[in-house]
Write a structure and sequence with these properties.
Elements: H1 3-14, H2 23-30, H3 37-49, E1 54-55, E2 61-62, E3 69-76, E4 82-86, E5 95-97, E6 110-121, E7 124-136, E8 141-149, E9 152-157, E10 166-168, E11 180-188, E12 196-206, H4 210-221, H5 229-242, E13 253-254, E14 261-264, E15 273-280, E16 285-293, H6 304-312, E17 316-318, E18 321-323, H7 328-334, E19 342-352, E20 358-369, E21 372-375, H8 376-383, H9 387-393, H10 402-425, E22 435-439, E23 445-450, H11 455-478, E24 484-486, H12 496-503, H13 515-525, H14 531-541, E25 546-548, H15 572-587, H16 600-608, H17 616-653, E26 657-666, E27 669-674, E28 680-684, E29 699-702, E30 707-710, E31 716-718, E32 722-731, E33 736-743
Parallel strand pairs: 5-7, 10-12, 13-20, 14-21, 28-33
Antiparallel strand pairs: 1-2, 3-4, 3-6, 4-5, 6-7, 8-9, 8-11, 9-10, 11-12, 15-16, 16-19, 17-18, 19-20, 22-23, 24-25, 26-27, 26-32, 27-28, 29-30, 30-31, 32-33
Helix pairs in contact: 1-3, 4-17, 5-6, 8-9, 10-11, 12-14
Length: 779
């Protein structure tokens, strides 16, 4: 099936409008395997037939022109204007929509728009248009604060997706009073002089209360919290069948006497991965065992539990609250690899030489008994020889044996060896600091601290990546489709923002950069004030990882084959991988009798008839669904994390002067990220001269440098500059913070550089990504 290639072809052709490729050039750029050549050609033919790309007389591939009408998704900026992203990509890119031409559309809506003209944008002409119809609303349920204004009841919506007050009728019918946090559904959208109208569907409680704000985000995001009765019944039945279960001789390898342990965050309850490590002195070989909860044993395909898990797609890890993909009787019970109890697992064993190069691998169903549950800081202290510090971070009283201590230290050496190998291969290593929220017993944030830097986080990450790669290689070897985690190479156009930023720091990026070039940029700015902004910009330039059956690898990990296998408790794609592997294990007597080369075709045909092995077309559809649910969960986590961070700053630092780093700028002002709390605020242009007391200076961009200059004083500021700012105003509900610049670096431009070339920039430089690793740092 050529379907898996289509999205990638469109992305690549979109990024090559200045130098359209021939099919052959595109195939080489996408690194299409020779075995997939026919599928690639059929995908090109299908796209040309559907008029989604054009094959010119010169033999080159181009996107079609925009035409007079566009159907696509509307993306609105915080200033009200936005862009329609066409469903069928066009040569001109996105359609610009002015504030007064949005037609009542909100960000994420599917709309129909007409092209009305063009506007100059740099050296090009960008089409402008008007939305004349909203075809499908992305969101109809919102949360906000009920207020009384001008004698009428209004709701001030949370966040930025709905940017106007909403008129409501009698709120007392729901028992809501002024200041209450409510959930409401829009019944009339804002358009022109007409206000938005809505109806209250739920009263959550007092604004600002942690549990109320959490429920507001859950409701507005559309997450399912309660499980259907049928799904819960199925989960309980599965538990009943497991109680007293033996190791299933012949179907499952008994590893209960093998030294196996877990390393997780201190608050974790769903332990889905455990590890074992062995070093053979005679052969100079490592053997890494990765043991993953056998969730497929308890969740039958097509049952009520599976249907519910498919819809959820993943667990949602909000600050201080988890919405699990599976009922907790499974995720925190029989599927959780708890210390000292027997658990069913899927095991991957990988052999490495002294340099960390893979020498062999095998898979099996197994039963394990974890000997110790450790936290990251506990394991790190044990590696460093500090048992007293380890005890402080322990969550169980189980003593650490000398054998376990030696194994943990072996794991540390192996992980560092694997990291060196990956860095040689070109793995992208980003310094992306994260702040961790600490809550009191009432659910309020009591402190915000930088996340601990223990290497054990990286240790587990390296091991999980190896397991994911090993399973992906296996599916490629037996030639059956699988749900892959794909991360295509970035297009060169996506790196323009990074080029602008790093040019101010004396670093240049070639026109066609390799992984090594990006590593050089990262290393040049690492441990400098600019690191946070530059590394975030590189993250933004990278293509977003997603789920697809297309075997195109993972760019950031320097991996040619990659799946998600290690978290089936909390990610549905992993569960599909487990089921396919389970089918192969059934066909090979638990992996002990793999098919010889001459029988591979027969084995493949047999597996493709197994309901546990999904077709490529089914995986394309399911991959898009799981990518969407993942994005929705990430957005909700980022949103609530921002609320709690801003609430803490408002309660503890309003009016204070704090250090920060410039992470971008646009027509509205500077964006500054506060050092300790890693939360972002805006210094508006009028608040740039706190020391002067006179009229504010005019700042403009020094084109292509990532710097701005004051026209009168000649002062220069750059992305990555350390500054101090005063917290002037904080709106946790509105998700914004206003700052005033207090101190800045003493740097001045030559007179000829003070002339504005672009004015106050309308394009934000250096906007940070909301990417967060979640409770466990997994790729």
């Amino acid at each position: 099936m050529p379907a898996a290639f289509i999205a990638r072809i469109l992305t690549e052709v979109s990024s090559m409008t200045d130098d359209p490729p021939t099919p052959g050039q595109l195939s080489r750029r996408m690194k299409v395997p020779e075995a997939d050549g026919d599928r690639f050609e059929r995908a090109i033919e299908q796209l040309v037939s559907d008029r989604r790309i054009k094959l010119g007389r010169d033999g080159r591939l181009r996107l079609p022109e925009m035409g007079n009408e566009v159907v696509g998704l509307f993306r609105q900026t915080r200033r009200g204007f936005g862009f329609v992203v066409p469903e069928r990509p066009t040569r001109e890119g996105d359609l610009y929509i002015a504030v007064h031409d949005t037609g009542g559309a909100l960000s994420g809506d599917r709309v129909h728009a007409v092209v009305t003209g063009r506007r100059r944008r740099g050296r090009t002409q960008q089409p402008t248009g008007r939305i004349d119809e909203v075809l499908k609303r992305a969101q109809t349920v919102f949360a906000g604060r009920l207020v009384r204004k001008h004698g009428r009841w209004m709701i001030e919506p949370d966040g930025r997706s709905l940017r106007c007050d909403v008129l409501v009728g009698d709120p007392h019918a729901r028992g809501a009073g002024e200041g209450a946090k409510v959930v409401f559904e829009l019944t009339a959208w804002p358009e022109g002089d007409y206000m938005a109208e809505g109806v209250i569907t739920e009263v959550l409680g007092a604004c600002g209360e942690p549990h109320v704000e959490t429920q507001a985000v859950i409701a507005a995001s559309g997450f399912s919290v309660d499980f259907p009765a049928e799904a819960l019944d199925e989960a309980r039945d599965a538990i009943g069948r497991f109680d007293g279960a033996e190791c299933e001789p012949g179907q499952r390898e008994d590893l209960r006497d093998t030294l196996i342990f877990t390393i997780d965050p201190p608050e974790a309850r769903d332990f889905d991965d455990a590890i074992s490590v062995d070093w053979d002195e005679a052969t100079s070989r490592w053997t890494l065992g990765i043991h993953i909860a056998d969730v497929a044993r308890f969740v039958a395909p097509g049952g009520p539990l599976d249907v519910e898990a498919t819809g959820r797609g993943n667990s949602v890890y909000l600050p201080n609250h988890v919405i699990p993909m599976l009922p907790e009787v499974l995720s925190n019970g029989v599927c959780s690899l708890q210390e000292g109890v027997d658990r069913f697992t899927m095991s991957a064993f990988i052999q490495f030489d002294e340099r960390g190069e893979v020498q062999g691998q095998r898979f099996c169903r197994s039963m394990i008994r974890s000997c110790k549950r450790m936290t990251y800081l506990e394991a790190q202290a044990l590696i460093e020889g500090d048992p007293d510090e380890a005890t402080k971070h322990a969550r169980t009283a189980t003593p650490v044996t000398s054998e376990l201590l030696e194994t943990i230290r072996m794991a540390d050496r192996l992980a560092k060896t694997l990291r060196k190998r990956r860095q040689r291969d070109g793995m992208i290593v980003l310094d992306l600091p994260e702040a961790e929220l600490f809550f009191d017993e009432h659910g309020r944030v009591r402190d915000i601290l930088p996340e601990d830097g223990a290497f054990t986080h990286t240790l587990i990450e390296m091991f999980m990546v190896e397991a994911n790669e090993a399973v992906a290689r296996h599916f490629e070897d037996i030639e059956i489709p699988a749900m892959r985690r794909i991360h295509p190479e970035p297009s060169f156009d996506d790196l323009e923002e990074v080029r602008t930023m790093v040019s101010g720091h004396g670093v240049k990026i070639p026109d066609h950069p390799t992984r090594k070039d990006l590593q050089r940029v990262l290393d040049a700015t690492r441990n400098t004030p600019a690191a946070r902004s530059v590394h975030f910009a590189i993250l933004r330039s990278l293509t977003k990882a997603s789920y697809s059956p297309l075997p195109i690898g993972h760019f950031a990990l320097a991996s040619n084959q990659y799946v998600h296998f290690t978290s089936p408790i909390r990610r549905y794609p992993d569960l599909t991988v487990h089921r396919a592997l389970d089918a192969w294990l059934d066909a090979t007597e638990n992996g002990t009798k793999p098919a010889p080369e001459r029988h591979r075709t027969k084995l493949r045909n047999m597996l493709m008839k197994d309901d546990r092995v999904l077709s490529e077309q089914d995986l394309v559809v399911l991959g898009a669904q799981c990518s969407m649910t993942e994005e929705r969960a990430t957005a909700a986590e980022r949103d609530l994390n921002q609320f709690f961070s801003l609430l803490y700053v408002e309660e503890h630092h309003l009016g204070d002067v704090l250090p920060g780093v410039i992470c971008g700028f646009n027509r509205g002002g500077l964006f500054v990220s506060l050092d300790r709390y890693l939360v972002e605020g805006t210094v508006r242009w009028g608040a740039m001269d706190a020391e002067g007391g006179g009229r504010s200076d005019r700042w403009s961009e020094i084109g292509g440098t990532g710097r701005i200059v004051a026209q009168r004083s000649g002062a220069v500021l750059a992305i990555g500059d350390p500054v101090t700012v005063q917290v002037v105003q904080v709106s946790p509900a509105g998700r914004y913070m206003d700052l005033m610049l207090v101190n800045r670096p003493e740097r001045y431009a030559r007179k000829e550089d003070r002339r504005s070339r672009t004015g106050r920039s309308g394009k934000r430089s250096g906007k940070q990504s909301g990417k967060r690793s979640g409770k466990k740092r997994r790729r």
